[in-house]
Amino acid sequence: xxxxxxxxxxxxxVTCANCGAKFKIGTTLASDFQTPVCSKCHPAYTGKELELxxxxxxxxxxxxxxxxxxxxxxxxxxxx
Length: 80
Ligand SMILES: [Zn+2]
Known about the structure:
This protein has helices at residues 43-46, 51-79, and strands spanning 10-16, 22-27, 33-35. It is an alpha+beta fold. It folds into two domains: 1-48, Rhinovirus 14, subunit 4 (Irregular), CATH 4.10.80.400; 49-80. The chain is elongated and about 75 Å long. Zinc ion binds at residues 16, 18-19, 21, 37-38, 40-41.
């Protein structure tokens, strides 16, 4: 192997942002990092749907709806 042309290979800790699982991987990346989904919680491995995401989507929509209502109410108040 030629010297000084290869990135440093090392072990880092990966944390799953969805279920919190931690595992070690060998990589050329410099630091620990997060992954949005892992083999412990991915639907392809668990056979279950990600409830968390479904709830999040509905909650996001409800928040948007609420904000729109407030904006509308605010505009009415300004005019009247
Ligand atoms: Zn996970």
